[in-house]
Design goal:
This protein is α/β, with parallel strands linked by helices and about 425 residues long. Helices cover about 30% and strands about 20% of the residues. The strands form 5 sheets. Strands 9-7-5-2-10-1-11-15-19-20 form a 10-stranded mixed β-sheet, sandwiched between helices. Strands 14, 16, 17 and 18 form a 4-stranded mixed β-sheet that branches. The termini are close together. The structure holds guanosine-5'-diphosphate (GDP), 6-O-phosphoryl inosine monophosphate (IMO) and magnesium ion. Guanosine-5'-diphosphate (GDP) binds near residues 15, 44, 293 and 413.
């Protein structure tokens, strides 16, 4: 039975939370495989709106086990704040599991994120400031702390001391206050008893679930173009948000994956710095931002907005091996006379159909647009593909052709039910 990856195919905030929540009712597990509380997923259930950062979207589906995979970085303070906030709204969080191998965001990796951004000055990345980059850097440098370290005080103390021996020299050189090993250890240990009952081994638990015919949804945070290897480096996050990351970040092998679902908006947005060929800096961008409510869930920053970018979609299709697209926010485009779609780029006077390998070229890419007729009707109540106005159907079919992948679901509003299903993804 299926393992389904749901990931962002643009620059984040495509509506992954909603797409995953929809699958949650069919899923036995929803596994977050990368990132941390840099993510912000909005899920609207009836009249209630939930903003999830660290917890997998499956937390809102009563029959599903939400699982924080080994590829995630966990801020323990945020974890328990989020759990308490959901419990106070009547959401049962007791099924939550956390991989023993997930890394921990500490007070010093959070501080180093801010210091690094300050040091970059005009070249700052515009991170979410949650300590993501320095925590993954420690993981790769093999001086990171993992969930399992909370249960061996002596080893934990030694690891914190080793990490701080280097970092405090750096911090003091910059005139910052050094961190005290005992304080850091005491804070971390204060969470140990609450974390212990949640700890799990993803490799055995998730593969066993698949062996038993259960459905496992692997939920990506961030997105393809923010991926540390395949995104617009260095304007990226520090994890693998792409499909490969779902395997390494959960402990499930690639031969077990049945579907790879890329979530895309019917246009494109981005928060933070970095290249964005179809970005609209004038009134059209403002119109999209207001109509689409394009403000960050995590930082509240206004999102940069632009038209749909087909070379980007084709790139996401290649990198991830997409089997399906979930197209969200089609409703936002109602009222337009005609809708521009970027079909290729012009770089140094030459047309290219592809996202270039060199970032120095990508920064120069100018969009080449084709124009598709728009529609005036409000489509937020449409339940089937046939309910959509003909022009909206044609727009979807056009995007399908230029993106080289079938569009299986279409979002027409933020609500759980506001999704037109053309092809079932599980079940
Ligand atoms: P995520 O990070 O990919 O989960 O996406 P975010 O939650 O950060 O941003 C997506 C926003 O779009 C949220 O406010 C959702 O409630 C909203 N949304 C999702 N799908 C649709 C849709 O089809 N139409 C509209 N109008 N809003 C949607
Ligand atoms: P979801 O899961 C959009 C961006 C930040 C910044 C860059 C690096 O909601 O789609 P980081 O704090 O990760 O080191 O920041 O990545 N970024 C996101 N942009 N959606 C997200 O998550 C993001 N998570 C990080 O704005 O440009
Ligand atoms: Mg988001």
């Amino acid at each position: 039975m299926p393992a389904v990856i749901v990931l962002g195919a643009q620059w984040g905030d495509e509506g992954k939370g909603k797409a995953t929540d929809q699958l949650g009712s069919h899923a036995d597990y929803v596994v977050k495989y990368n990132g941390g509380n840099n993510a912000g997923h909005t899920v609207v259930v009836g009249d209630e709106k939930f903003a999830l950062h660290l917890l997998p979207s499956g937390i809102l589906s009563p029959n599903c086990v939400p699982f924080i995979g080994n590829g995630v970085v966990v801020d323990l303070e945020v974890l328990f704040q989020e759990i308490e906030a959901l419990e106070s709204r009547g959401v049962d969080t007791s099924r939550l599991r956390i991989s023993a191998s997930a890394h921990i965001i500490t007070s010093y990796t959070r501080a180093l994120d801010a210091i690094s951004e300050k040091g970059l000055g005009d070249h700052k990345l515009g991170t979410t400031g949650r300590g993501i980059g320095p925590t993954y850097a420690d993981k790769m440098s093999r001086v990171g702390l993992r969930i399992q370290d909370l249960f061996d005080e002596e080893a934990l103390r030694q690891k914190v001391a080793s990490a701080l021996a280097q970092k405090n020299v750096f911090l003091q050189a910059l005139g910052e206050k050094p961190f005290v090993v005992d304080d850091v250890v005491a804070t971390l240990l204060s969470y140990a008893d609450r974390v212990r009952p949640l700890v799990a081994d993803g490799v055995y638990e998730l593969n066993k679930a698949l062996d038993e015919g259960k459905t496992v949804v692997l939920e990506g945070g961030q997105a393809t173009m923010l991926d540390i290897d395949h995104g617009t480096y260095p304007y990226v996050t520090s994890s693998n948000a792409t499909a490969g990351g779902a395997c390494t970040g959960s402990g499930i092998g690639p031969t077990r994956i049945d579907r790879v679902v890329g979530v895309m908006k019917a246009y494109v947005t981005r928060v933070g710095e970095g290249p964005f060929p179809t970005e609209l800096l004038g009134a059209d961008g403002e119109w999209l931002r207001e109509k689409g409510g394009e403000y960050g869930v995590t930082t509240g920053r206004p999102r940069r907005c632009g038209w749909y970018d087909a070379p980007l979609a084709r790139y996401a299709h290649s990198v991830n091996g997409l089997t399906d697209i979930v197209l969200t926010k089609l409703d936002v485009l109602s009222e337009l006379e005609k809708i521009p779609v970027c079909v290729a780029y012009e770089i140094d006077g030459k047309r290219t159909e592809e996202v270039p390998a060199f970032q120095s070229d990508f920064r120069k890419a100018k969009p080449i647009y084709e124009y598709v007729p728009g529609w005036k009707e409000d489509i937020s109540g449409c339940e089937t593909f046939e309910d959509l106005p003909e022009a909206a159907r044609e727009y979807v079919l056009y995007l399908e052709r230029v993106s080289h992948c079938r569009i299986s679901s279409i979002g027409v509003g933020p609500g759980r039910e506001q999704m037109i299903i053309r092809h079932e993804l599980v079940g």
